[in-house]
Amino acid sequence: MRVGLFIPxxxxxxxxxxxxxxxxxxxxxGVDVIYPPKQTCCGQPMANSGFEHxxxxxxxxxxxxxxxxxxxxxxxxSCVLHIREHLHDDKNPEVAAQLSSKVYELTSFxxxxxxxxxxxxxxxxxxxxxQSCHGQxxxxxxxxxxxxxxxxxxxxxLLNMVEGIEIVPLNRIDECCGFGGTFCVVEEAxxxxxxxxxxxxxxxxxxEFITGVDMSCLxxxxxxxxxxxxxxxxxxxxxxxxxx
Length: 244
Hints:
This protein is an alpha/beta fold. 46% of the residues lie in helices and 11% in strands. It is built from 13 helices and eight strands. Strands 2-1-3-4 form a four-stranded parallel beta sheet, sandwiched between helices. Strands 6-5-7-8 form a four-stranded parallel beta sheet.
Protein backbone atom coordinates (compact mmCIF):
# COMPACT_ATOMS: atom_id res chain seq x y z
CA MET A 1 0.00 0.00 0.00
CA ARG A 2 1.46 3.35 -1.10
CA VAL A 3 -0.16 6.37 0.51
CA GLY A 4 0.22 9.95 -0.57
CA LEU A 5 0.22 12.40 2.33
CA PHE A 6 -1.79 15.54 1.58
CA ILE A 7 -1.10 18.36 4.03
CA PRO A 8 -3.48 21.34 3.75
CA UNK A 9 -1.77 24.70 3.27
CA UNK A 10 -2.83 26.18 6.62
CA UNK A 11 -1.56 23.08 8.47
CA UNK A 12 1.73 23.35 6.59
CA UNK A 13 2.11 27.01 7.50
CA UNK A 14 0.71 27.20 11.04
CA UNK A 15 0.48 23.70 12.55
CA UNK A 16 3.37 21.58 11.20
CA UNK A 17 3.32 19.38 14.31
CA UNK A 18 -0.07 18.03 13.21
CA UNK A 19 1.43 17.11 9.84
CA UNK A 20 4.45 15.44 11.44
CA UNK A 21 2.25 13.47 13.83
CA UNK A 22 0.12 12.26 10.93
CA UNK A 23 3.20 11.01 9.08
CA UNK A 24 4.68 9.36 12.16
CA UNK A 25 1.42 7.67 13.12
CA UNK A 26 0.91 6.19 9.65
CA UNK A 27 4.49 4.95 9.54
CA UNK A 28 4.10 3.33 12.98
CA UNK A 29 1.16 1.42 11.54
CA GLY A 30 3.32 0.08 8.73
CA VAL A 31 2.12 2.33 5.92
CA ASP A 32 4.48 3.36 3.11
CA VAL A 33 3.91 7.14 3.12
CA ILE A 34 5.16 9.57 0.49
CA TYR A 35 4.85 13.36 0.66
CA PRO A 36 4.75 14.99 -2.79
CA PRO A 37 6.74 18.20 -2.21
CA LYS A 38 5.04 20.28 -4.94
CA GLN A 39 1.54 20.09 -3.47
CA THR A 40 -0.34 23.29 -2.66
CA CYS A 41 -3.87 24.37 -1.71
CA CYS A 42 -6.78 22.13 -2.71
CA GLY A 43 -8.77 25.16 -3.86
CA GLN A 44 -11.42 25.11 -1.14
CA PRO A 45 -11.13 28.82 -0.17
CA MET A 46 -11.85 29.86 -3.75
CA ALA A 47 -14.77 27.48 -4.05
CA ASN A 48 -16.23 28.67 -0.73
CA SER A 49 -16.10 32.24 -2.02
CA GLY A 50 -17.89 31.47 -5.28
CA PHE A 51 -14.81 31.25 -7.48
CA GLU A 52 -14.50 27.51 -8.03
CA HIS A 53 -14.11 28.18 -11.76
CA UNK A 54 -10.73 29.74 -10.95
CA UNK A 55 -9.45 26.69 -9.08
CA UNK A 56 -8.63 24.63 -12.18
CA UNK A 57 -4.91 24.88 -11.51
CA UNK A 58 -5.41 23.45 -8.01
CA UNK A 59 -7.32 20.49 -9.43
CA UNK A 60 -4.70 19.81 -12.10
CA UNK A 61 -1.84 19.95 -9.62
CA UNK A 62 -3.63 17.73 -7.10
CA UNK A 63 -4.20 15.08 -9.78
CA UNK A 64 -0.60 15.36 -10.96
CA UNK A 65 0.72 14.91 -7.42
CA UNK A 66 -1.55 12.13 -6.16
CA UNK A 67 -3.05 10.08 -9.02
CA UNK A 68 -0.44 7.32 -8.72
CA UNK A 69 -1.12 6.40 -5.08
CA UNK A 70 -3.35 3.64 -3.71
CA UNK A 71 -4.78 6.10 -1.19
CA UNK A 72 -4.39 9.75 -0.26
CA UNK A 73 -4.65 10.68 3.43
CA UNK A 74 -5.00 14.13 4.97
CA UNK A 75 -5.37 15.44 8.55
CA UNK A 76 -8.35 17.60 7.56
CA UNK A 77 -11.96 16.57 7.10
CA SER A 78 -12.76 19.91 5.47
CA CYS A 79 -10.16 19.65 2.70
CA VAL A 80 -10.91 15.97 2.11
CA LEU A 81 -14.62 16.70 1.69
CA HIS A 82 -13.82 19.43 -0.82
CA ILE A 83 -11.63 17.10 -2.87
CA ARG A 84 -14.19 14.29 -2.74
CA GLU A 85 -17.03 16.51 -3.92
CA HIS A 86 -15.31 19.01 -6.21
CA LEU A 87 -12.17 17.51 -7.76
CA HIS A 88 -12.63 17.45 -11.53
CA ASP A 89 -10.72 17.50 -14.79
CA ASP A 90 -12.64 18.19 -17.97
CA LYS A 91 -9.98 16.43 -20.04
CA ASN A 92 -9.74 13.32 -17.82
CA PRO A 93 -12.96 13.11 -15.77
CA GLU A 94 -12.50 9.40 -15.01
CA VAL A 95 -9.04 9.98 -13.52
CA ALA A 96 -10.38 12.74 -11.29
CA ALA A 97 -13.35 10.64 -10.18
CA GLN A 98 -11.17 7.65 -9.38
CA LEU A 99 -8.71 9.77 -7.40
CA SER A 100 -11.38 11.59 -5.39
CA SER A 101 -12.75 8.25 -4.18
CA LYS A 102 -9.31 7.32 -2.80
CA VAL A 103 -8.90 10.44 -0.63
CA TYR A 104 -9.45 9.84 3.09
CA GLU A 105 -9.49 11.90 6.25
CA LEU A 106 -6.98 10.42 8.71
CA THR A 107 -9.34 8.86 11.29
CA SER A 108 -11.58 7.43 8.57
CA PHE A 109 -8.53 5.85 6.94
CA UNK A 110 -7.44 4.33 10.25
CA UNK A 111 -10.86 2.85 11.02
CA UNK A 112 -12.22 1.99 7.56
CA UNK A 113 -9.09 0.98 5.63
CA UNK A 114 -6.47 -0.08 8.19
CA UNK A 115 -9.11 -1.41 10.63
CA UNK A 116 -7.06 -0.24 13.62
CA UNK A 117 -8.09 -1.85 16.91
CA UNK A 118 -5.08 -0.94 19.06
CA UNK A 119 -2.81 2.09 19.43
CA UNK A 120 0.23 2.23 21.77
CA UNK A 121 -0.54 5.81 22.73
CA UNK A 122 -0.68 7.56 26.12
CA UNK A 123 -2.24 10.92 26.94
CA UNK A 124 -3.17 11.29 30.64
CA UNK A 125 -5.31 14.41 30.34
CA UNK A 126 -8.93 15.57 30.24
CA UNK A 127 -9.84 16.15 26.61
CA UNK A 128 -12.83 17.72 24.93
CA UNK A 129 -13.54 16.42 21.43
CA UNK A 130 -14.89 18.83 18.82
CA GLN A 131 -17.01 17.30 16.06
CA SER A 132 -16.27 19.42 13.00
CA CYS A 133 -19.22 19.90 10.67
CA HIS A 134 -17.55 18.86 7.41
CA GLY A 135 -16.21 15.70 8.99
CA GLN A 136 -19.45 14.76 10.66
CA UNK A 137 -22.08 15.82 8.14
CA UNK A 138 -20.05 15.49 4.97
CA UNK A 139 -17.75 12.53 5.60
CA UNK A 140 -19.98 10.83 8.21
CA UNK A 141 -17.19 10.41 10.72
CA UNK A 142 -19.75 10.34 13.54
CA UNK A 143 -23.50 10.22 14.03
CA UNK A 144 -25.49 13.45 14.11
CA UNK A 145 -27.22 13.98 17.44
CA UNK A 146 -30.52 15.09 15.87
CA UNK A 147 -31.03 11.71 14.22
CA UNK A 148 -32.85 8.87 15.96
CA UNK A 149 -30.18 6.34 15.09
CA UNK A 150 -27.40 4.35 16.76
CA UNK A 151 -24.51 6.57 17.73
CA UNK A 152 -20.97 6.11 16.45
CA UNK A 153 -17.77 8.11 16.21
CA UNK A 154 -14.71 7.03 14.27
CA UNK A 155 -12.44 9.62 15.95
CA UNK A 156 -13.99 8.76 19.31
CA UNK A 157 -13.29 5.06 18.89
CA LEU A 158 -9.62 5.85 18.27
CA LEU A 159 -9.36 8.23 21.22
CA ASN A 160 -10.77 5.52 23.47
CA MET A 161 -7.73 3.40 22.59
CA VAL A 162 -5.39 5.98 24.16
CA GLU A 163 -4.14 5.06 27.62
CA GLY A 164 -4.94 7.51 30.40
CA ILE A 165 -7.16 9.83 28.39
CA GLU A 166 -10.43 11.15 29.86
CA ILE A 167 -12.94 12.33 27.27
CA VAL A 168 -15.07 14.99 28.95
CA PRO A 169 -18.84 15.12 28.29
CA LEU A 170 -20.29 18.13 26.51
CA ASN A 171 -23.74 19.67 26.66
CA ARG A 172 -23.96 19.90 22.87
CA ILE A 173 -21.80 17.18 21.37
CA ASP A 174 -21.86 18.32 17.76
CA GLU A 175 -22.46 22.07 17.83
CA CYS A 176 -20.67 24.10 15.15
CA CYS A 177 -17.72 26.23 16.30
CA GLY A 178 -18.59 29.01 13.86
CA PHE A 179 -15.39 28.93 11.81
CA GLY A 180 -16.82 27.85 8.46
CA GLY A 181 -13.85 28.94 6.37
CA THR A 182 -14.70 32.27 4.71
CA PHE A 183 -17.84 32.48 6.90
CA CYS A 184 -15.70 33.72 9.80
CA VAL A 185 -14.64 36.66 7.61
CA VAL A 186 -17.97 37.68 6.07
CA GLU A 187 -19.98 37.02 9.26
CA GLU A 188 -17.37 37.87 11.88
CA ALA A 189 -19.72 38.67 14.77
CA UNK A 190 -21.84 35.53 14.34
CA UNK A 191 -18.76 33.37 13.93
CA UNK A 192 -17.14 34.78 17.07
CA UNK A 193 -20.27 34.26 19.18
CA UNK A 194 -20.62 30.66 18.00
CA UNK A 195 -16.96 30.04 18.80
CA UNK A 196 -17.29 31.49 22.29
CA UNK A 197 -20.30 29.27 23.00
CA UNK A 198 -18.43 26.20 21.77
CA UNK A 199 -15.37 27.01 23.87
CA UNK A 200 -17.46 27.62 27.02
CA UNK A 201 -18.93 24.12 26.77
CA UNK A 202 -15.43 22.63 26.94
CA UNK A 203 -14.34 24.96 29.74
CA UNK A 204 -17.46 24.19 31.76
CA UNK A 205 -16.45 20.54 31.78
CA UNK A 206 -12.84 21.28 32.77
CA UNK A 207 -11.14 20.14 29.57
CA GLU A 208 -7.37 20.58 29.56
CA PHE A 209 -7.16 20.11 25.80
CA ILE A 210 -9.57 20.41 22.89
CA THR A 211 -8.99 18.10 19.96
CA GLY A 212 -10.61 17.32 16.63
CA VAL A 213 -9.94 16.28 13.04
CA ASP A 214 -9.81 19.82 11.61
CA MET A 215 -7.12 22.30 12.66
CA SER A 216 -9.21 25.05 11.06
CA CYS A 217 -11.91 24.66 13.72
CA LEU A 218 -9.30 24.27 16.42
CA UNK A 219 -7.49 27.38 15.19
CA UNK A 220 -10.72 29.36 15.52
CA UNK A 221 -11.23 28.14 19.09
CA UNK A 222 -7.56 28.63 19.92
CA UNK A 223 -7.87 32.33 19.12
CA UNK A 224 -10.85 32.62 21.48
CA UNK A 225 -9.03 30.72 24.22
CA UNK A 226 -5.99 32.95 23.87
CA UNK A 227 -8.08 36.11 24.09
CA UNK A 228 -9.65 34.77 27.27
CA UNK A 229 -6.25 34.10 28.74
CA UNK A 230 -7.17 30.42 29.10
CA UNK A 231 -4.52 27.75 29.67
CA UNK A 232 -6.53 25.20 27.66
CA UNK A 233 -4.66 24.07 24.55
CA UNK A 234 -5.79 22.71 21.20
CA UNK A 235 -4.22 19.64 19.58
CA UNK A 236 -4.99 17.84 16.36
CA UNK A 237 -6.18 14.30 17.04
CA UNK A 238 -3.11 12.91 15.26
CA UNK A 239 -0.88 14.40 17.96
CA UNK A 240 -2.82 12.53 20.65
CA UNK A 241 -3.04 9.23 18.77
CA UNK A 242 0.71 9.47 18.12
CA UNK A 243 1.51 10.26 21.75
CA UNK A 244 3.87 8.10 23.81
